[in-house]
UniProtKB/TrEMBL annotation:
<protein>
    <submittedName>
        <fullName>AMP-binding protein</fullName>
    </submittedName>
</protein>
<dbReference type="InterPro" id="IPR045851">
    <property type="entry name" value="AMP-bd_C_sf"/>
</dbReference>
<comment type="similarity">
    <text>Belongs to the ATP-dependent AMP-binding enzyme family.</text>
</comment>
<feature type="domain" description="Carrier">
    <location>
        <begin position="524"/>
        <end position="602"/>
    </location>
</feature>
<dbReference type="Pfam" id="PF00501">
    <property type="entry name" value="AMP-binding"/>
</dbReference>
<dbReference type="Pfam" id="PF00550">
    <property type="entry name" value="PP-binding"/>
</dbReference>
<dbReference type="Pfam" id="PF23562">
    <property type="entry name" value="AMP-binding_C_3"/>
</dbReference>
<dbReference type="Pfam" id="PF01553">
    <property type="entry name" value="Acyltransferase"/>
</dbReference>
<dbReference type="InterPro" id="IPR002123">
    <property type="entry name" value="Plipid/glycerol_acylTrfase"/>
</dbReference>
<dbReference type="InterPro" id="IPR000873">
    <property type="entry name" value="AMP-dep_synth/lig_dom"/>
</dbReference>
<dbReference type="InterPro" id="IPR009081">
    <property type="entry name" value="PP-bd_ACP"/>
</dbReference>
<dbReference type="InterPro" id="IPR020845">
    <property type="entry name" value="AMP-binding_CS"/>
</dbReference>
<dbReference type="InterPro" id="IPR042099">
    <property type="entry name" value="ANL_N_sf"/>
</dbReference>
<keyword id="KW-0436">Ligase</keyword>
<dbReference type="InterPro" id="IPR036736">
    <property type="entry name" value="ACP-like_sf"/>
</dbReference>
C-alpha cells in the first residue's frame, strides 16, 4: 500500500455496507457507509479537479469535526493534494500566517465560523455543503500516481506570532504509524467511537480517522461539543470508546461527581472508590453500574494522550471499571510513539514503543528522542527549525523522560516549560503538579515560573473546593518535594478550570499573565456567555447580532415564533450544554431573563410519555398481524375503499412522512389500509398527547402504533422523538390540521408540518381521504358513541407524489406547498 488513497479503497471495499460515520444534525442522524465514504471521496476529487487543483497543491480546511471532513481528506489524498487543516480556535493573525506559508489557493470552512480566508485563497466552499455539491458529479476515474514520500499534510503546531512551524507529514508517515498502532492495540470492528478531538490534529487523524477505519468501526461526530451533548450521545449511540485528552476525562468526572453530590450518594461513592482498586475489573463494573449509566452501559475504555494525565483522575476512572489507555507522541511523529494496551499496561507510564519506532533517552539531558518511518522529515520551508529539532533522522521531542526495566516510558517534564531558579537549578513544573494533583483536596493545579526581583520563582495556581485549606495543602506537598522544587508562592485559582489551548492543554502563558497581574486574564480571553447567547438568537432569527438588546422580548421585539424558539433551545442545549424547558419561556421573556434561565438550568425535562416496548420487533409484528387479521376486516365492513396512487410509492425512499386530512374517528385506519405491508411494518402515528390522558391511549398506542406528539408544552421533545423514530427506520403518519374537520373541508395546517418537512430529511407524501368519510363516523357529543359507525359507505383514498424539502426552504412556503398538494388530490 503506497498511499492513503489506496488505504481508502482497500478498507472501504472490505467493510462496504457497514456504517463508517454518523452525525446528528438537528433532529435527525445522518449515516455514511464505508462504500458511501469511498464514493463521495471520489466525487469530491472530481470537484477539486474541476477547479484546476492538482497534485502538490495545498487546500486549507477550517471547520469542526463532521463526516465531510474525512471525506475531504481522502479526496485530497487520492489526488496527491496536500491538506492544511487549521484548528477552529486559531486566531486570525496566526491563520493568515499558516495560509500564506503553505500557499493555499483553495479553502473549505464551516458556516458556523465567522471570518474568511485571506489571500492567496482564491475560492472558498462551505464544508457542510460538500455532499450536496458533489452528489450529482461522477466518481473520479483516473488518479495521479502518489508516492509514499509525497506530502499528505502540513500540520501547523505553533500558535504564536512569527514564522509558523508546519510539520511535513507524508503518506508513508501516516501509513507506518497506523500500521504499527493497529498491530499493537486490539481495535475491534464492533467498537463504536465518539470523535471528540479536532480532526485538524494528527492524534485524531491517526486514531479516529485511519485506525478505526482500517478495522471497520463506526465513528460518531457531534455537531457541537459540550458536556450535555457528549453524555447524551454516549448513551443514545451506544458508544464503546473515545480517544480524548485528560481535560475531557476531568470534565466528565466532575459532572458525575456533581450529580452524586446532589443525590446524596457521596458517602457511598467515596466508600466504593476506596475499595475498588482491590477488586477485579468485572466486579468494579458491577458495583459502579448505577454511576456508569451516565456514560451508557456499552462504554468500555478511553484512549488518552496529548497532555499529562493526572494519576488520581485516572485511578478514579479505573475504579469504576472504565479503563484508561494512555499513550504518547507528537505531531512530528505522526501522533503516536508509545501506548498502553490491554496486554501491556502500567498506570503512570505512557506505555511501550510501537513496532518499528525507536526511542532513546539522551544520557546527558534525559531528553526523549525518536526515529522511525512515522517521524517527519522536518518543517515546511524552514531549515533552521528543522536542523534544530531533527538530527540524522532522530527527532528531539523536548520532553524529559525515562524507561523502567520492562520498557515502559515515563514522562517527567518538558524542556520548554522548565523553570530556571536564580541559583541555576532547573525545575520541571510537571513534577510538582503531579504531587499537587495527587493531594485529595486538589482538583487541578498549574505550576509556572514568575519573574521577581531576585529571579524566577516557582508559583502554583491551585483549584480546590477547600480554599481555607490551601496553605496546609502546600505545606503537605512541599514535604514531598526536593529543596529546589519547593513551592514558594501559591494562589487560589477562582475559576472552574484553567484556560486551555485548542487541544485542551493548560495555557500556561495565560495562567502566568493572570498571576503576574497583566491585562490578559482569563475573563479577557474567553468568549462571554452574553455574546454567545446573542449569537445563537441571531442564528435562529437570521438577523445581525447587533440588533439584539438585553431588554428585547423574545416573542414581540424579536418575533420568535414557536418553531424558532424550538431551534433556539436546541442551539442553547448544543452550544451551552444546558436544557431550558419550553414552558419556562413566556410571551414576556426577555434576552436577559433567558440568560438567567440558562444559568439556573439543571434538569432535562421529560419527553412525552410512551411505552418503548410497543415499538420492539416482536410487538410491531404482532400489531401488523392483528391489524391485517382483525382491525382491517372489521373496518372494511363499514368502510370499503377505492385506493388510487399506489404507483407513487413504488420508488419511495423510506422512511417517509405521510400526512392525511383528518375527517373523523379512526380515519387513520383508512390510510393504514391504503399503504402496503412493506411500509406498515415500520410505521408509527403521531397522535395528539390529549389521547394519552384518555381511555383511547391503549388503542392508539398498541393497535395503531401511535406515539404522543405534544404541540403545546414540549414540542422540542416531540420532534426529538420523531427524529429517533425516523433514524430507526420508522415512517411517520401525521394529521397536520391538528384536529378533526368540523365541516368536511380542509382546515389550515399547523406550521409544524413545514418544520417537520424541512428539518426531518425525509420525503413527504400526501394521502387524501374522501370527505364523505365523516358520514360513517359523524361527530357526536358522546365520546363513546362517536366510535360506532352509523352507516356503510364506499369511500376513496388517494396517494399523492412524494415531495422533498431542504432545510433552507421557508417553513411557511413548505407548509403552503404541502397543503396545496392535498387540495389538488
Amino acid at each position: 500500500m503506497n498511499n492513503l488513497g489506496q488505504f481508502l479503497r482497500t478498507y472501504s471495499l472490505q467493510h462496504n455496507a457497514r456504517i463508517a460515520y454518523e452525525i446528528k444534525r438537528g433532529f435527525r442522524t445522518e449515516k455514511f457507509s464505508f462504500a458511501d465514504v469511498h464514493s463521495l471521496a471520489l466525487k469530491t476529487a472530481t470537484l477539486l479537479k474541476s477547479y484546476g487543483l492538482k497534485k502538490g497543491d495545498t487546500v486549507v480546511i477550517w471547520a469542526p469535526n463532521m463526516p465531510e471532513y474525512p471525506i475531504l481528506y481522502f479526496a485530497c489524498w487520492i489526488l496527491g493534494i496536500i491538506v492544511v487543516p487549521i484548528d477552529i480556535r486559531t486566531t486570525e493573525e496566526t491563520r493568515q500566517l499558516f495560509i500564506a506559508t503553505a500557499g493555499c489557493k483553495f479553502g473549505f470552512k464551516s458556516k458556523i465560523i465567522a471570518g474568511s480566508f485571506p489571500p492567496p485563497v482564491a475560492h472558498t466552499c462551505y464544508l457542510e455543503d460538500l455532499i450536496e455539491l458533489v452528489q450529482p458529479l461522477p466518481e473520479l476515474e483516473e488518479a495521479p500516481e502518489v508516492a509514499p514520500d509525497d506530502l499528505a499534510e502540513i500540520a501547523f503546531t505553533s500558535g504564536t506570532t512569527g514564522t509558523p512551524k508546519g510539520v511535513q507529514l507524508t503518506h508513508r508517515n501516516f501509513l507506518a504509524n497506523v500500521s504499527a498502532l493497529c498491530q499493537t492495540f486490539p481495535f475491534k470492528q464492533k467498537y463504536r467511537t465518539l470523535s471528540l478531538l479536532p480532526l485538524s490534529h494528527a492524534f485524531e487523524q491517526v486514531v479516529d480517522l485511519l485506525a478505526v477505519f482500517q478495522f471497520g468501526s463506526a465513528v460518531t461526530y457531534l455537531e457541537r461539543i459540550n458536556p450535555a451533548t457528549i453524555i447524551s450521545t454516549l448513551r443514545k449511540h451506544r458508544i464503546t470508546t473515545a480517544f480524548v485528552v485528560p481535560q475531557f476525562l476531568q470534565l466528565l468526572m466532575t459532572g458525575i461527581e456533581r450529580e452524586i453530590e446532589k443525590s446524596g450518594a457521596q458517602r457511598i461513592w467515596s466508600m466504593l472508590q476506596s475499595i475498588a482498586s482491590l477488586l477485579p475489573i468485572r466486579l468494579r463494573r458491577c458495583i459502579f453500574y448505577p454511576f456508569r449509566q451516565r456514560l451508557g452501559k456499552h462504554f468500555q475504555f478511553f484512549g488518552c494522550g496529548s497532555a499529562p494525565l493526572n494519576s488520581k483522575l485516572a485511578q478514579k476512572w479505573e475504579n469504576t471499571g472504565i479503563v484508561i489507555y494512555e499513550g504518547y507522541g507528537a505531531t512530528e511523529t505522526t501522533a503516536v510513539l508509545t501506548i498502553n494496551t490491554p496486554f501491556a499496561k502500567r498506570q503512570g507510564s505512557v506505555g511501550k514503543a510501537l513496532p518499528g519506532t525507536h526511542i532513546q533517552i539522551n544520557p546527558t539531558t534525559h531528553e526523549i528522542i525518536a526515529r522511525g518511518p512515522n517521524v517527519s522529515a522536518g518543517y515546511f520551508q524552514d531549515m533552521p527549525k528543522t536542523q534544530q529539532a531533527f538530527t540524522e533522522g532522530w527527532y528531539r521531542t523536548g520532553d524529559i523522560g525515562s524507561f523502567d526495566a520492562e520498557g515502559y516510558l515515563y514522562i517527567t517534564g518538558r524542556e520548554a516549560l522548565r523553570i530556571v531558579l536564580p541559583g541555576g537549578e532547573k525545575v520541571y513544573p510537571e513534577d510538582i503538579e503531579n504531587q499537587l494533583n495527587a493531594h485529595p483536596l486538589v482538583l487541578e493545579s498549574c505550576v509556572v515560573g514568575v519573574q521577581r526581583e531576585q529571579g524566577e520563582r516557582v508559583h502554583a495556581a491551585i483549584i480546590t473546593r477547600y480554599p481555607q485549606e490551601l496553605d496546609e495543602i502546600v505545606r503537605q506537598v512541599n514535604q514531598k518535594l526536593s529543596s529546589h522544587e519547593q513551592i514558594l508562592e501559591w494562589s487560589l485559582w477562582r475559576h472552574d478550570d484553567f484556560p486551555r489551548t485548542p487541544i485542551l492543554k493548560i495555557d500556561r502563558r495565560k495562567v502566568a499573565n493572570a498571576i503576574e497581574g497583566r491585562k490578559e486574564t482569563l475573563a479577557a480571553v474567553q468568549i462571554s456567555e452574553d455574546d454567545k447567547l446573542r449569537s445563537l438568537i441571531a442564528q435562529s432569527k437570521k438577523i445581525p447580532v447587533s440588533r439584539i438588546k438585553e431588554t428585547d422580548v423574545l416573542t414581540t421585539d424579536l418575533a420568535l415564533d414557536s418553531l424558532q424558539r424550538v431551534e433556539l433551545l436546541s442551539l442553547i442545549e448544543q452550544d451551552l450544554g444546558v436544557t431550558v424547558a419550553e414552558t419556562e419561556i413566556t410571551e414576556h421573556t426577555t434576552v436577559s431573563q433567558l440568560r438567567e434561565l440558562i444559568e439556573n438550568a439543571e434538569v432535562v425535562p421529560e419527553g412525552p410519555p410512551f411505552h418503548a416496548l410497543n415499538y420492539t420487533p416482536l410487538l410491531v409484528r404482532t400489531r401488523v398481524l392483528l391489524q391485517t387479521m382483525l382491525i382491517f376486516p372489521l373496518h372494511s365492513l363499514f368502510v370499503p375503499l377505492e385506493i388510487s396512487g399506489k404507483e407513487n410509492l413504488v420508488n419511495l425512499e423510506l422512511p417517509a412522512i405521510f400526512y392525511f386530512n383528518h375527517m373523523g374517528i379512526m380515519d387513520a385506519v383508512c390510510v393504514l389500509r391504503a399503504l402496503p405491508l412493506s411500509i406498515r411494518r415500520k410505521l408509527v402515528i403521531a397522535a395528539t398527547q390529549d389521547l394519552w390522558q384518555e381511555w383511547r391511549q391503549f388503542f392508539v398506542e398498541f393497535w395503531g402504533g401511535g406515539f404522543p406528539f405534544d404541540t403545546r408544552h414540549n414540542i422540542k421533545a416531540s420532534f426529538e422523538l420523531m427524529g429517533e423514530f425516523l433514524d430507526n427506520g420508522f415512517s411517520i403518519l401525521i394529521a397536520p390540521e391538528g384536529g378533526i374537520s368540523k365541516d368536511g373541508t380542509l382546515q389550515p395546517f399547523k406550521s409544524g408540518i413545514g418544520f417537520i418537512a424541512t428539518h426531518m430529511h425525509a420525503p413527504v407524501v400526501p394521502i387524501k381521504i374522501d370527505p364523505s368519510y365523516r358520514e360513517i363516523f359523524p361527530p357526536m357529543d358522546a365520546a363513546l358513541l362517536e366510535n360506532i359507525p352509523k352507516k356503510r359507505k364506499r369511500i376513496w383514498v388517494k396517494i399523492g407524489e412524494p415531495m422533498i424539502f431542504s432545510k433552507q426552504s421557508s417553513l411557511e412556503l413548505a407548509m403552503q406547498k404541502i397543503r396545496q398538494a392535498m387540495i389538488e388530490l
